[in-house]
Amino acid sequence: MLALQTLQVQWLLKLSEIPEVEEVPLFSEDAQLFLESIFSNFSLADACAVKGVERVTNHDVKAVEYVLKDKCRSHPELEKVHGSSVKLDSKKKYISL
What we know:
This protein is mostly helical.
């Protein structure tokens, strides 16, 4: 779970560096640190939150995406980032890691 969340956050950070991806703006240093803190401070409570969402969605990657999106709502710069910007085929990326 931590690996999936880390991958999603790093993907979002990378997207923010690509000017052609208009849906994801270049993030301030504060927003970047906030995102990095999501996986560096990953806790048992975070894992339980993902598992709770996974019971409803029956999809681990989707559950990670929803929890990440929920966490981003608490940061003014990140709350506007569209959920589809975070999506990627992380199962394949995760396996390749």
